[in-house]
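**User:** My hope is that you can spare some time for a protein that puzzles me. As I understand it, each token names a local backbone shape. I would be glad if you read both lines and explained how they fit together. The protein I mean follows directly.
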Amino acid sequence: MKWTDKQLDIINTRNRNILVSAAAGSGKTAVLVERIVSLITDERENIDVDQLLVLTFTRAAASEMKERLRERLEELQESNNNDNIVKQLTLLNNATITTIDSFCGKVVKENFDKIDLDPNYRIAEEIEVELMKNDILNNILEEYYEEGSEEFLELARKYSGGKVNDRIFNIVDTIYKKAKGEINPILWVNNLKNKYKFNNLDDILNGEVYGHVFKSTVDQLNKCREDLQKAIEISEMDDDLKSFGQNSKDMLIEIEHLLDKKDFRALAKYCEKISLPRLSTVRKGNPELKLKVKTINSSVKATVENLKDLYFTEPIDEIYEDLVNCRETIDILCEITIKLIERFTAEKREKRIADFDDIAHMALNILNDIDGNGKLQPTKVAKDMSKNYKEIMIDEYQDSNYVQEAILTSVSKGYGINNMFMVGDVKQSIYRFRNAKPQLFLEKFYSYEEDLQADNCLITLDQNFRSRKEIIDSVNFLFDRIMTPNFGDIDYQKGHRLSLGAQYEKIPERQDNRTEFIGIQTGSKEKEATFVASKIRELTDPQNGFMVQGKDGKMRPAQYKDIVILMRSVKSNAGIYVEQLMNMGIPAYADSKSGFFDSMEVETIMNMLTIIDNLRQDIPLVSVLTSAMFNFTDDELAVIKGDNRKISFLDSLLAYQETGDDSNLVKKIYDFFKELNYYRKLDYKNSVYEIINEILERTGFQYYVSALSNGKRRYLNIENLKEKAANYEKTSYRGLFNFVRYIEKIKELDSDQGEASTVNENDNIVRILSIHKSKGLQFPIVFICDTSSNFVADAGTVDISDNGYAAVDAIFPDVKLTVTPTYRKYVKDLNKQESRMEYLRLLYVALTRAKEKLIITGRVGGKYEKECEEVINSEDVPLTYNQIMNNSSFFKWIRFVYLKNQVLVNNSFVTEDEISENEVDQMVKSELKKMLLETWNNAEVPKDVYDRLIKDFNFEYPYIEDINLCSKASVTELKKESMADEEAEDSLDKIFEKTSVHKETEIVPQFMKEDKESSDRIYGAERGTAYHRVFELMDIENKEYSKDIITNMIQAQIDSKLLTKIQGEAVNPYDILKFTKTKVFERMAKAKESNQLYRERQFLLGVQAKEIKEHSNSDELMIIQGIIDVCFIEDDRYVILDYKTDNVDSMDELKHRYKKQLECYKLALEKITGKKVSEMIIYSVKLGEEMAI
């Protein structure tokens, strides 16, 4: 590959701290890989690949980088085979090329003793952590209500509207979420309170916030003064514009008066009486000059009025009282938040779980100490670790946060040795909601030198190797005018513009590759989607459509898979676009995080689980009754309900069962209750996963939905729900009640994964993605749609800025008065600025995905043509601060710029009538297609064609058996498979089983049920795990055992955190005592004396499929893995022992269940050790018996 000069600078520059500002499409990953290859193959450097710390932000990116490195090294090996390249290929497997989260996890695992952490901790799921946090916060709030402190009760009075607890809960939760991304969360929360330290009004007005307000106001007024001076100059060019010029002069006088004020108090007092002149109407004069002056005057007046409304409506003499009120609120909220942080941290430690934020903070504490000045200093661990890494490389550096920065700084060389390499693009920092801090990138961007000899050097990659010139030009034209010093920290024209790097074939004649900006006169999203669908039909027309460059470098007609539709929010638009595209015969797929929980099959199962837990819920109850599980009709429900409008449907159901006239319906109700009671009994001893499986097996519901339209997707949706149930079982929560909460929390957090996808990445379909999901991708043709939808406004009860200010309203419940102080308006405005800057960067990401064609659409109103005329005639200058802040959609920003240039951009306007005409045309074409298909169906097929088709359909693949083999299986899976044939017939009987009428229904009111969700109980597999753990840890060499000895042994294991308290309490000491009296225990003890006893022995073994699968003749290699509970050597042969905690009545039942499993253990042990297995034994904990198989 031929590298550019700047790419070579990146590859070859050594011993520097390097920041690479890599524009979109500049090939940064390829350059980063080549830099690594250059470092590890340069004999002068003497660096191995495992001496580099390479960090990415996704596992996929880390895997891709490793694979690219491997390919590049293998390529070098072919041309220049030497020992070093072989060595680097060998070391690559252990190289630290990983995510920042994984690196933090590695630091913690290797140094858990430094922070008194249980080494057996696990990473908790996001939902589990959220549920736990919510429970703790609710408990804390309950405690505050019980204690009844004056400060808290006043807080409750302030937020007494609606659900008080929910409002306070949400504010504390907001503060907590902000705090957990900070280096020291508790210190950060305390600093929120410290911002309110003042004794009088002067302290407030001379403080930081009002100082910032004053400066911001002066900066905007200075800009107004410059603009007015320009307007006066323009008006003097034409005598007919003198009245306009006088407006400018009058306003300039007022602006000068404002700028004369030297502090906030004086400025505020003047603002109370300021009155800008009414703008004159001028009919004569040069239209172009008139429009320019009018635009400036209107903009200045709007700016001053906006500043007045924003900062100067709160009377000066009320500021102190308002902020005292706010201080009281913030103090108690911060106090609650700190309690939440402390208690939540302790609870997670107790349960031996952690989330990714915890792991990052643990790593931070392991690697850093705080000196006397409050500064972070690297610990000995950090200094020792830094010796292992010759260079630290960080990809996507623009998405780093302060915690990650501190961690990586601590393990860098420092002390005059420069070894940090950072690459990213600050214009693509779009993860503010994940606490990304683009300021880190910008600080270095503006402080590093464009000098390769400097200790800290900046290298800019501006060449875009992705897009055609038409795309580059339109992107530059837009961002030159909206990403400016007028707004935000990025000056696009200085170091951020794209330059053309891609080489494309010449565009066909009459093909227009210019960017299109289209206003669609409609208020309907459906109409916009219809227009986009018709546009795609045009582009993909095989004869007259759009031509794109293929992988072979030749031009070819565009296909559906070349096209992507990008939007800010897919969730609210995906269904609309998919439907309209499909209506026009265009295959489409939306990567949407919605629809899964709303799908019929998932909703039905969740409703079933809900009523198993609590039957007194009418909506889920009726849903289940009318589902395919029980098939009640609407007429039957009406009969059951009758005139009983004042009672619940459950009571109506019970009443009809007792007194109903229709015997068939009574039996149907009885069968429903009988089935329900069966599942309710399962809830006490089975996992949610097992209950779902039982429901599916007994009702045949999964088979039913598989036979419906989109059956494959429906089937996969159920499998995904089962997977969520399996994941839930790994959490610290148990039972159906908490599972329903778990699922509700997933929905609340907007974590719906979307319906199961049956789409392959190579399918010829149009894809619909969110802009966030498109980052890092590229497509020949990109539509950016729904651009006229407004940005999301933050409407929370508390505002917290990125620089650590928290603000609330001043609430006076006694007089029912709520005031929004200037303090809060300022913080809210700061957040709005940060949000607008993020939207600017999001727009940049969207536009730079396109390779050959970019089309932007948005909905407009009836006055759009007039608005266009005003924009076209206005001066071509960068957007002002107020234009960015006060226009709340992509479309409005783009309109201000693109409408001024018809050369680079094809601007157009489509009326609703034109869309409707197109719809009718498409409907006619669709009907014609149907007619042609019907004609084809009636046509005769030649015999030779018919015979060939029949032969093809009857073809049987000779290796069909191997298709169904999995490459890797656990012993448990093989055991289940071996029992499948025996149970298949029985399962079918269960599906279609008819239940007989019984005299009583076992309905138990919810308040009488045992509290099975309490945290002091465990079920099923986890109980078995507890027993296995005790058996694994128990002292075999002890000569005497009693109940007390075993109880003390279990308690010691709990105290050592080898067992959880819940696990320890689940183990009955008598069960362990019974085991010590068995013959097999004596044999184990004897083997232990000669060091020939092995417990929890893991294995991974490759075998031919026919060796372990019944009825298989395949020689294909399969990998099996498992853990043998106990094996020991007697007479030079192995004996295998397997503990079982199943609730069975006989040993024969265990033998039937686990024979295949033990045979797999035998096969593995014999192949791995070369010794024969003489005996396989099952020990039943429940029965206290052993049996040889």
Observations:
- The chain has a mean pLDDT of 87.
